[in-house]
Structure formats: C-alpha cells, structure tokens
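Per reviewer request, we include the raw input and output of the structure prediction for the construct analysed in the revised manuscript.
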Amino acid sequence: QWFRAAAPATAWLSLDRAEWSGIDVVRGILTALHRGVGPSMTDPIDMRSGLAEIARIVGTLQGPVTVVIDDAHRAAAALADPELRSLLEIGPAGLRFLMVGHGELSTALNRLVVHAVAAVVDGAALAFDRTEIQTLSPRLSAPEAARLLAATRGWPIAVNSAVAGSGDGPITEYIADNILDRLPAELAEFVVTATTSDRVDPDLAVALSGRRD
C-alpha cells in the first residue's frame, strides 16, 4: 500500500533466486529503476559502470527515489562487496533503499545500523496491537481482540486469517512455503515433528522427535 501511494518515485526489485552477487544486485537495481522511474542507457559490464549508471539515473530526477528490495536476505553475502556497501552508505543524494527480508539480512546490515545510516523495523514493530486488531475488524469486542492478540501475538498474517474466518489453512501453507522451506531439512523435520503439541518443553521435544540433541 505504501509503495502504491509513493509512486512514481519508487522502484521495486524482488530477488527471486537463492543467491545474488554484487553485480547481480546492481543490475537488478538498474532494471527496477528503468521500469519505475527512468530509462537505463547501458547494460553494465562491471560494478563500476553499473554504479555510474545508477548515479546518472538518480541525477536526472527532480526528487528522492526509493528502491524497494524484496527478499533482500538472498543478497546478504553480496552486501560484503565494498562497492555495493558504498552504494548503500554513501550513494547518490536522493537515493534510498527499503530492504525487506529476514535472518542474515540483519547481520549484513549491522554496520549501517551502528553508524546510523540505516534503521531496522522488526517484527515486534510490525505486529498488530489490540487497537489495530479492532480497527481491522470493528465487530470484535475489546475482550475478543485481546484474546486474538494473545493467540497470534499480533502477527499480521495470522490476525488477518483469523478475522477473515479462514482457519489455519492459509497460515499452515504460508509457514510451509515461506518458513519451513527455507530451513535446513533436518531442522524443518524437527519443527514439524515437535510442534504437534500446542506447548513443548525439552522433555516432550525429545519424546516427539526421538533426538536427545
């Protein structure tokens, strides 16, 4: 919703495969800028020419532009590239990045956060509170909203699914596709096995999984 409201000064890049190199990310940013805010004149052959083209496009614009990078954790390793990191830290004036991801992305951006170049909006900030749950579904009473908050911990997808009355199906599918599928196979198997009970302690986890570790 924010992206649609902020157009046309926005560009969107989804990282749709497992790993991205620094030059892959730069080319992706150029493609996103080309689609969103201004034409790219060259296909960069290396990092330096790619960064120069990004600077040229941004320099032709009247105001700031934000590039949204979705699933940015897939480029976490690429952020170690000093030239790509320089683009994020001291890139062209008016160029901003909104990076959406999880896990290793936070570690990759620690330097930027410590130096106040970047800020992190985490799951706790994005979780719904009771007032937001009631705004989403005015038919809920305050006690009902409080119970839903306790059950979901404000996780927006779970709250929305419960309010829509769609049961656990969409949540289960989301977890399978977007969480379990990204875990090592051994860990995913443990999660599926050990969470057949609503409450799990170490002894029950061992009993369910058959693993002492």
